[in-house]
Amino acid sequence: MAGQIIKLTDFAAQMTAHLKSIIDDNKMKLSISSIMVGENEASKSYFNGIRKKAADFGIDAKCEILPADTTEEQLLEQIKRLNADPSCYGIMMQMPLPKHINAKNVFDRINYCKDIDGMNIVNQGYLFSGEPLLIPATAWAVQLFLEYFSARFDYPLTGKTVTIIGRSNTVGKPAAHLLLQKDMTVNICHSKTVNAEEICRQSDVVVAACGVPKMVKASWLKPGAVVADVGIHRTDDGKLCGDVDADDAVQNASYITAVPGGIGSLTSTLLLANAVKAYFLIEKQQLMKMDFTEMK
Amino acid sequence: MAGQIIKLTDFAAQMTAHLKSIIDDNKMKLSISSIMVGENEASKSYFNGIRKKAADFGIDAKCEILPADTTEEQLLEQIKRLNADPSCYGIMMQMPLPKHINAKNVFDRINYCKDIDGMNIVNQGYLFSGEPLLIPATAWAVQLFLEYFSARFDYPLTGKTVTIIGRSNTVGKPAAHLLLQKDMTVNICHSKTVNAEEICRQSDVVVAACGVPKMVKASWLKPGAVVADVGIHRTDDGKLCGDVDADDAVQNASYITAVPGGIGSLTSTLLLANAVKAYFLIEKQQLMKMDFTEMK
Question: Are residues B33 and B105 in the same domain?
C-alpha cells in the first residue's frame, strides 16, 4: 500500500504560534545580525527569507555586508563588536567566506550563546555531550518532525533504527546525536558507504541529507519506513525536489516529508527559536527547552 | 574456520618506543596531575598504574587527594591553579566525584589544552567537528588498533561497516566520530537498541563497549568479523574478561582483541600521549598528529 507525502504546514504554524507566544509573554525585544563578506545573491536571498520571517516575530534582522577584501582580523573585530552588543541575540556568518578567511576560526569566535547557527565549537561540544544548547536548525527540524510524528501517529522512537545519509557538521552529525538522545539506534552513511541502499532498506526511519537530488527511491526503503527529506534542489523544469524521489519512494514508505513544505519549512522558525534560546541563556542563564511537540 | 584472539603487545611496545622518542628528541620535561576528591581505593590503584607508566617516560605524575567535603568552589580553585601552572601538561579528575560537585562543570573548567582525559566541552566539540585535539584514550586506542590492523592485514577501513555497542561520552560517541573520519559506515547501538545481535551480525567490524561481561558471542558476528573488545571485568574465578565472550566469538570472528592485553593495554600510553600533545599545543601552538600506525 502506497504511503503519504506529508506537508508540515500545520506543524510549522503551531511552532510559529508557540514561539510567538514565548516572545510576547516575555516582552522580548530581539535583534539578530547576519554578516556577509562580499556580495552574494544566494546569501542575500536566503537572508531576505529570514528577515521576512523575523518580522513576523517582531525580531529585527540586520545584515552587514563587508567588502570582499575584508581581512580575518577585521571580520573578527566585527564579531567582537556584536558579541558585546547587548541588543544582539544572534550572529550568523553567511557562507561561503572568501578563501583568505578561516571559516572555522571565525565561527569559534562567536559567543556561543549568540551562535544561532550552532556552528561554534562549544555548541558542537554540548551537542556531543548530550546536553545541546543551540542546535543547527535543520538537524533540530528533523528531530522535532520525528517527535511530532511519534506523538501524532503513536510511533515510539525508542529502539527504532534510523539511517542518516550524510555526515555534515550542520545536518548529519547533529541529527545523529539528537536521535541517539531519543534512544534510536543510529546508523550514519556517507559518500564512502558501500551499499547505502541495502543499509537504508533495513531501517525503520531514513533521514536523507546526502545533497543528491532524488537519490532515495522505493528500493531503498523497508515497507512502512518513515522518511525525513532534508534536501532541496531545483530541477531543470524549475520545480523543487529533495534527496528523495518521493513519487517513487512513497510506494514503499508510510510517510515522507514533502519538498517543498517539509523539513525546510521549519528551519527559519527554528533559527529564530535559537535567538529566543540565546535570550534566555544570556539574560536568565537558563536553557529554554521549547518542547514544540507538547503543543498538540 | 576459527579466528584468532590477538594480543596487542607488539603494538603497545612500538607505541611506547615512538612516544618515548618524541619526548627524548624534544627534551620534554612534563608533569601531569590527578585530582581525587575523597579517598577511593579503585582510583588510587588506577592512578598508581598511570604513575608507573609515566615514570617509564620520565613524566612526573602527581596525585592530589582533597578531603571528601571539598566544595565545588575549592575544587575549581585547584583547577585554576593547575591551569596556570606552567610545568603541568595534564589534569585528570578522578571519578566518581562527591554528589555535591557537578562533574561536568568541573571538566569544562580544565584548560582544554591540558584536558588529557578528553572530557572538556571544547575537546568534545573538536571531536564532533572532525578536527580532534585531545581524545579520550580508550576511543583513540580503538581507532589506532583498527588502523594498525588495517595496515598490517591489508584491510582497508574505508566503506567498512562498524557497529559500536555503547554510546558513552568516553568511548562509544568518540569512537563513532573517529571511525566516521576513517570513512567507515558507523552504527551506534545501546541499551535501548532492539536486536543488537542481528545488527552486529551485519557488520564488518564490531566495537564492544557495552560494559556487560561476555555479551558478544559467535552468534552476534558475521563470519570473518574484526572485533575490538573495550570491556574489562573480573569474573567470579578471579580471571579477567571483556564485553566479548572471546572463546565462543572466535568461532566466527577473524580477529578479536584479547582481554587482558588488548585495547586496555594501549590506554595508559595514550593518556600520556595526550600530555605530549598538550605540550605541543601549549608550547608550539601546534597539533602533534602522532600517527602511531606509520611505525611498522
Answer: yes
Q: Provide the pLDDT for residue B290.
A: 78
Residue B142, domain CATH: 3.40.50.720
Number of separate domains in chain B: 2
Region for A199 from its dihedrals, namely left if φ exceeds 0, alpha if ψ lies in -120 to 50, beta otherwise? alpha
The ipTM value here is: 0.96
Question: What secondary structure letter does DSSP report for A10?
Answer: H
Q: How far apart are CA B261 and CA B255, in angstroms?
A: 14
Most A-contacting residue of B108, B188, B201, B210 (CB-CB within 10 A), to test interface: B188
Q: Which residues of B touch A127 (CB under 8 A)?
A: 128
Q: Does A127 touch chain B (CB under 8 A)?
A: yes
pLDDT in tens, A237-264: 999 999 999 999 999 999 999 999 999 9
Partner residues linked to B278 by β-bridges: none
Q: Is the pLDDT of residue B1 over 80?
A: no
Residue at A58 is within a domain: yes
* pLDDT > 60? residue B213: yes
Q: Is A105 on the interface with B (CB under 8 A)?
A: no
Q: Determine the structural domain holding residue A246 and report its residue range.
A: 4-8+136-264
Residue A16 covered by a domain: no
Res A296: pLDDT: 44
Residue A95 backbone zone (phi > 0: left; psi -120 to 50: alpha; other: beta)? beta
Cβ-Cβ pairs closer than 8 A, A with B, add up to: 103
The answer to whether residue A195 sits within a structural domain is yes
Q: What is the rounded average pLDDT of the residues A181-193?
A: 98
Residues B145 and B157 sit within 8 Å (Cβ to Cβ): no
The pLDDT, as a whole number, for residue B296 is 45
β-pairing verdict for B226-229 and B205-208: parallel
Give a yes or no: residue A213 inside a domain. Answer: yes
Long-range contact pairs involving B72-76 (C-beta distance under 8 Å, separation at least 24): B72/B100, B72/B101, B72/B102, B72/B105, B72/B106, B75/B35, B75/B37, B75/B101, B75/B106, B76/B106, B76/B109
Residue pLDDT, tens place only, B18-56 = 999 999 999 999 999 999 999 999 999 999 999 999 999
Burial of B37: CB neighbours in 10 Å, binned 0-12, 13-18, 19+: buried
Percent over 90 (pLDDT), chain A = 94
Q: Rounding to the nearest 10 degrees, give the CA dihedral for residues A236, A242, A243, A245.
A: -80
Which pLDDT score is estimated for B85?
A: 97
**Hey, how many other C-beta atoms are within 10 angstroms of the C-beta on A212?**
13
Mean pLDDT (whole number) for A219-224: 98
- Are A168 and A242 within one domain? yes
SS3 B214: coil
Q: Which residues of A92-115 are buried (b: 16+ CB within 10 A; e: fewer)?
A: bbbbebbeebeeeebbbbbbbbbb
Cell of B13: 611496545
Residue B203 has pLDDT above 90, yes or no: yes
Radius of gyration of chain A (CA): 19
pLDDT tens, A98-136?
A: 999 999 899 999 999 999 999 999 999 999 999 999 999
Q: Do A185 and B199 touch (CB under 8 A)?
A: yes
The CATH number linked to B62 is 3.40.50.10860
